Input
Amino acid sequence: MNKKIMIRGLVWAAVLPALMACSHAADGPHVAFTQPQDGATVGQDVKVVMDVHGMQVHKAGELIDGAGHHHLIIDGGFVPKGEVVAKDATHKHFGKGQTEATIHLKPGDHTLTLQFADGHHQSYGKGMSETIHLHVK
Ligand SMILES: [Cu+2]
Output
């Protein structure tokens, strides 16, 4: 009996990471929110986990082919390719190469856009962005 339950637990431990893996259909480089999920209801302090596929995360400063860093844009949408991402209260840069952050949002409905940009903060465009909708309690 106990053994059966243990085995069931082991099966879940093996299956869960696969279920949580990136569900993007895109073959090319792209970014994705690991957390939170699109459409989620969250508290005002939101833990965000940012992922990139097909490119490398590198700290800001120098231009490196195939590398860049994450940005979060609150209620703004993606930044067109080549444009420098603004730096203000609603445009957050993760120029140290961070892939996790906690941001504060006011109650209500918001969009959160993950935008990858190069070492000079020049956007890689819509194809390297993802926008999700959040409801903040
Ligand atoms: Cu930047």
About this structure: The helical segments are 2-20. The chain is about 15% helix and 40% strand. The longest strand covers residues 108-117.
